[in-house]
Amino acid sequence: MIGRLRGLVAEVGEEDVLIDVVGVGYVVRCGARTLSRLPAIGEEALLHVETQWSEQTGITLYGFLSRDDRKAYLALRAIQGVGPKAALSVLDVLPPAELAAAAARDDKAAVARAQGVGPKLAQRIVTELKDKPLSDLSAASFQPNALASATPVKASVAGEAVAALMGLGVAEPAARRVVEQAVVRLGEDAEPPAVIKAALQELGR
């Protein structure tokens, strides 16, 4: 599973963006609000990614500019009747904080502004999201040590590289082997793109 991508914006379409990560292009589906806030083509972008698979479409990546956006997307997708397109549409009109506020005041009209969301589905959304934290910060406010424990550790670089290789179809054992070799060669302070590139070179040997 790919959880995050950092790379250059190569192309921006109506519903997706092509992110170039050390020469590998990832097509990522995004909402209109996310697409409009992306850096210019050729500049670096960091996307928080939700990886989904279906028999019809295979692997699809959904990208968000913040963890809160991704968290809210997952909360929406957990609701019966809310598919990927509807979830992205809701977040286009209501960012996470505004969505939480709309749910708290039972404002189904605000949610129904989203394309493809009718009154019944809007009511279900506000009912199920009421009192549900839609951001990591909100959840952390109830757990004093959560912010400290959420600090990313360097070991996640290897995990990110393994996930990227698995997203390219490399089996997990092979991905972990070449990533470990790349980390040994580059050092523990290496950045994910460099580790991914070195791992791909190891695969080619």
Tell me about this structure.
With 205 residues, this protein is of the alpha+beta class. The protein has three domains: 4-64, OB fold (Dihydrolipoamide Acetyltransferase, E2P) (Beta Barrel); 67-148, DNA polymerase, domain 1 (Orthogonal Bundle); 156-204, Ubiquitin-associated (UBA) domain (Helicase, Ruva Protein, domain 3). The protein is 48% helix and 19% strand. Helix 4 crosses helix 6, helix 9 packs across helix 10 (172-186) and helix 9 crosses helix 11 (192-204).
Q: Summarize this, please?
A:
The protein is of the alpha+beta class and 205 residues long.
Question: Gyration radius, to the nearest Å?
Answer: 19 Å
Q: What is the CATH H-level superfamily of the largest domain? A: 5' to 3' exonuclease, C-terminal subdomain
The low-pLDDT segments are 137-155
What's the tally of helices? 11
Q: Helix amount, in percent?
A: 40-55%
